[in-house]
Amino acid sequence: MTDMSRTSVRNVGVGLLSGVLIALVPAAPASASTRVEYTPTYTHGKTGSGPICGGKISGVVVTHPMAPGRATVYLTAKLKAEPTLTLTWACDVPTTVHWVNTRTGRRGATSVTFTLTSLPQTKECTPIVNGVRCGTTAELRLNTGTGQIRSWITTRLRHIPGHARFQVF
């Protein structure tokens, strides 16, 4: 075998080996998930015959490339109530996460009611539409479609809404 043919065989071998190694290396994962915090939502008022109550609702939204067109919002309510003369009372805070996809104009909202009560409560999780509620926390799933999302949190009591902007894959 001549030097020229040895070089050609070596080049072909190196090329094949490189191709095999590239095929064996797993593809790099898509960009990681995103996590955006809402500005706090402050709320105060009275629902029905319950006490005057209110507090702060915090929210975090998470998106991931493995869940295209969807976002998950995690809410936490830190509520307080004025003492009442009755032994049993409840403070209900109906809370809604609104969103609009600025690329498509599509919009929607998902709601949950947080409750603070004088009765002892178990912290069992309860399924709700598009999510889970567990005491004074909730997980809401938003089907927004891909694009830039503008979102805000409101309550049925007097409130200062929280806001967030995030990208959905």
Short description:
With 169 residues, this protein is mostly beta strands. It is built from one helix and twelve strands, in the order αββββββββββββ.
What does this structure look like?
The structure is a single chain. This protein has 169 residues and is mainly beta. The chain has one helix spanning 3-24, and strands at residues 34-37, 41-46, 52-63, 70-81, 90-101, 107-117, 125-128, 131-134, 137-143, 147-155, 158-160, 162-168. Strands 1, 2, 3, 4, 7, 8, 9 and 11 form an eight-stranded antiparallel β-sheet that branches. A four-stranded antiparallel β-sheet has the order 6-5-10-12, with no helix packed on it. The longest helix is centred in the N-terminal third of the chain and has 22 residues, at 3-24. Mean pLDDT is 82; it is low at 12-28.
* Helical residue percent band: 10-25%
N-C termini distance: 56 Å
> Please, what is the oligomeric state?
single chain
Number of helices: 1
- As a whole number of angstroms, the C-alpha radius of gyration is 26 Å
What is the number of E strands?
12
Strand residue percentage: over 45%
Residue stretches low in confidence (pLDDT < 50, at least 5 long) are: 12-28
Counting helices, strands and paired strands, the structural category is mainly beta
Tell me, briefly, the overall form. elongated
SSE inventory with pairings:
Layout: H1 3-24, E1 34-37, E2 41-46, E3 52-63, E4 70-81, E5 90-101, E6 107-117, E7 125-128, E8 131-134, E9 137-143, E10 147-155, E11 158-160, E12 162-168
